[in-house]
Amino acid sequence: MSTPVNLEVDLGAGLILRNPVLTASGTFGYGLEFEPFVDLRRLGGIVVKGISPRPRAGNPPPRLVETPSGMLNAIGLQNVGVERFIDDKLPPLRERDATVVVNVFGQGTEDYVAVAEALDGKPGVAALELNLSCPNVAHGGFLIGKSPKAVAEVTAAVRRVSRLPLWVKLTPNVSEIVDIAAAAADAGADALSLVNTYVGMVVDVERRRPVLANLTGGLSGPAIRPMAVAAVYQVARAVKIPLIGMGGIVCVRDIVEFLLVGASAVQVGTASFNEPGIAARLVDELAAWCRDHGVDDVRELVGAIEIPR
Ligand SMILES: Cc1cc2nc3c(=O)[nH]c(=O)nc-3n(C[C@H](O)[C@H](O)[C@H](O)COP(=O)(O)O)c2cc1C
User: Fold this and answer.
1) CA atoms within a 13 Å half-sphere pointing along the CA-CB vector of 163
2) Is 290 an active-site residue?
3) Is the CB of 200 under 6 A from ligand 1?
4) Residue 309 above 70 pLDDT?
């Protein structure tokens, strides 16, 4: 009998995941909703819906529209707020031995710090993932994630109040993602997640109106995958901390593609809307892919792309 493939990956700051397949924030609720379809323990981790200091109702509908090979969403960061998350969601997740990464968002540094402080020392949180794709209310509404200075400020502020492994999630809606990545790494991020959604718009031409109530939304799914892969490739060459890649993963070759360009782990997002159990299925398929390709340890694939000279 052949030895089993090692799927464990090291995401820095002492965090070892049982395998490199996580579910992406906003596409897997708080994990518990998916229990009928997935044994949560089998996943590398669950990144929960973005959590803010206080509950939020999100945007008015319509908030979702299907697009060619993808989906446009403008949910508006609906969530239960950090207190209810700690009281109602975290204990059952902990009982199930799930690896839980808490995605955090806010409209200024104080919001990120408040959520990080509230979660500090709470058992069952494996890491924080900062979603910096929010307008900064204190500074004229620009997206925090578009400014290296603002990214560094938020990252450093959270670093000061939290001992948890700290991931910073990058928006791809910038001209130089490498500059943003470097700012986050220099400010103390332990790992970087990329990418968030791309800005998109769909128009109902009969009514001559935008389909989404928010006018624009975030594009996800296979339509964005080549752009996301390129972003991971570029960032991997510029920073030394581990990367978690995502954008349009629907099958095992997509996972291997992200690993080869330098991701140590991946997140599956929109694909869970089509098949709620897909992330767990892909864990098994990744092990089988490695076995078929003579790969004993999945870490051998990370950054193993060969660039022709
Ligand atoms: C409906 C929906 C809600 C999302 N909510 C969040 C969120 O709360 N925080 C966040 O960082 N990313 C959020 N995202 C972005 C995803 O986590 C992921 O970065 C993106 O969808 C790309 O991966 P995919 O193509 O596999 O879906 C959301 C995506 C979708 C489709």
Assistant:
1) 5
2) no
3) no
4) yes
